[in-house]
Amino acid sequence: MKSTFLLFGVLLLTITSFAQEQFIPPRPEHFTPVVDSVNVLTPKQESDLTQKIKRFEDSTGTQIGVVLLASLKGYDVESYAFQWFKKWQYGQNKNNNGVLLLAAINDRKVHIETGYGLEGAIPDALAKRIIEEHIKPNFKAINYHQGVDEAVDEMIKLASGETYTKESEEPVEWYWYLIVIVCFILLPFTLVILVIVWIVKAINKRTGGTTYTCKGVNKNSNNLGSTSTYSDSTDTTKRKYSDYSDYSDYSDKSSYSDYSDYSDSSGGSSGGGGASGDW
Prior knowledge:
The radius of gyration is 40 Å and the shape is elongated. By secondary structure, it is α/β, with parallel strands linked by helices. About 26% of the residues have low confidence. Helix 2 packs parallel to helix 5 and helix 4 runs antiparallel to helix 5. The protein has six helices and eight strands, in the order H-E-H-E-H-E-E-H-H-H-E-E-E-E.
């Protein structure tokens, strides 16, 4: 029974992928990186974007594609973008260093599909940030060219080895570095020193002498109620003295603590990944 369900699932996935490919046009002989089937870009905007992508491809070999569609025809944006990436074969075959930005304007869905060769430079988390911080705000404001242009700029930076940047992000103030140093370096070090000092004092206290004060009758003396003091630095228990018959007042003037439980508190041919979103 399980094998039947598994076979049915594989068959259904194959049929779905085949149906999706029927809506995806073949890659043209003269490849163009920008496909705008809904005419949301002006001819100049499309031309400028194409030239930017081609210059980057010529210098690095990395290929960027932009596809703007009207609808996904009921299919999932992630699988649709994957099938488009696979059919158009973005990037070099040996490096699989392509990336595709696909957006369905009427469905308000967008996906960035990256080849295996670019997963290190453009991981899914950064692809998601590009969508959230550049594409979605501009697409909501009907600034499609601005959103695509900013997204392409960020992908070019990441593919070139640069770190992700956003102009609206404020630089980290110097005092935050000071707080981190105090909290994670100086404070634990100080706590360790205090704990060591406490342990040393406790050990010294435990190894000190014990004083016993006894009142009674000394058999060898005529003085009744005389007081004698004995010191013992090893035995912390009450001792019996043969010279006295009456222990009317015995007191241990040293206090002890038990440290038995002490603990220290210091302490190309196919996509590899991507991200989706809507607006």
